[in-house]
Amino acid sequence: SVKMKSLRFISAEAFVSNAEFARKNLRGVAHNLFPLLFKASYLLEQREVIHDLVENWPLVDFNMGKLLGTTVDYQEDLSHRTCSMCLESCLTGLRDYVMNHQSPYVKRLKLVDLTGMKDVEVQFCNCKKTMGRWARTQLLSKLCLELLFYLQQRQCNPGIFEISIDVLIDLFVTERNYELVVQALLKKCYCPLKICCVALRFDNLALQKFFYVIKLTDPPLLRKLEIVHNVRLEMEHLGILFNSIHFPLLRSLTLPARTFDVQRFTATDEQMLTNLGEKMGEMTQLTELSMSFSVLTGRIQKLLSPLKTPLKTLDVSNCSLNHADMVYLANSFHANNLEALDMSGHNIPDLYPSSFFKLLSHSSSVLRSLTLEDCNFQDTHVNMLIFGLSSCRKLQEFKFLGNPLSSQALKHLFTFLCELPMLKNVEFPVPKDCYPIGITYPIDDASVCRFDHQKYESIAEELNLILLQANREDVKASTPLFGSYDAAVQETKNELQAYLIKSFKETLEKFTASLNKMT
User: Fold this and answer.
1) Any residues with CB less than 8 A from the CB of 112 and at least 6 apart, and which?
2) For 415-434, how does the pLDDT look when each residue is reduced to its tens digit (9 = 90+)?
3) Structural domain boundaries in the chain
4) Alpha helices, DSSP H only, in 187-266?
């Protein structure tokens, strides 16, 4: 739908479309028009104007999410445009705001909020180059250090040292930007731009470095902590973290694969798990928890029952849950509050169908996202699945890749899905009849692409036709074979690949060395 622009917005576009004219005449612009001009410049990608607007920002706060989000004058939300050119202009404008003592405006800026930017797959900006969360972390750290260097080198206007601006940001730290981020955080107290970390993501980082960065950020401010992939965090390390640092505002926690493995538990480990549950219970804001690819058989109650606040998001995919775990979840106070649930990698129909559907019915009034990948749902279970989903009227997203369903069963399911009024996104499996006869599920990575692509295309067309005939072209249906798009993984994939090759090479060398010793 075409979003309407007010006359004010059209005038703002006209003003900023001639960059030279706009930059010359900024001094005559009323303070309350700066936000309007900023959004217009961002839409038109007028990088010099963006820079100058930020450099002379006359207001107390600069909130990217609010400035680019839905506004009265132009309802289009631009906060998912992480255009590299525009964001660089914003951040260098911020550095120059501190350095520019010629500015006619009194420096009132106290708070910059960069957390409202949303990283998405498709970019609409002309340069087509994005600046993701990792690159924003890198650039802000670099600019803070440049600013300090500038202040040390010059006899600056003493007024500069009175400037103190809190910059709220979601940091993303890996081995490659670790040194730079650490330097910026260490020197934070001397820099007029104060990095305030609200969300923190770690990937591909040694444990020692992970602990060091966490201590340098201000943990009491942290709302979201993601520790993923190549951070070798195990339960004992998590215990050390929670015992030594308090996270009173933490709302969201993501732990890496294999954080827990109850198969190797001793009596001490059991006690440690109990303590961890209690520590998480002290985090009264915690409502999102992701613990995928850990072995948690029979221990879900121990971890989740101490929580004082019901969870809204729970990801326990591939956690080897048993019947007792599922019974606990279905009857817990979390069940009625779950807005997003990922139960992938569990054989639901064979292990605990009634407990799972009880959980689904309890969360049905609020559930927005449901992921059931590789759960062994077959044609004979489709009616059961439809019955379970029929009360989930708020469901916006349903992902069920990797289930052995035929094209016939998928058509039946799609006919039902058209009835869910809020549904926007469906990820469905390649139909079983597109694979060679005798294929076993879950399908391994090597065989996942070995299906009849032509047959798949024609079935996908039929499924989309079902949506179309029900006037549901608002629903996007797709089969991302290797999982959904993840902006953070996409941005750092080269570094991760290099790390994996290096560790594979090291393992191979150790193996060869031990073979040589034996001969």
Assistant:
1) 61, 62, 63, 94, 165, 166, 167, 168, 193
2) 999 999 999 999 999 999 99
3) 7-131
4) 207-216, 235-244
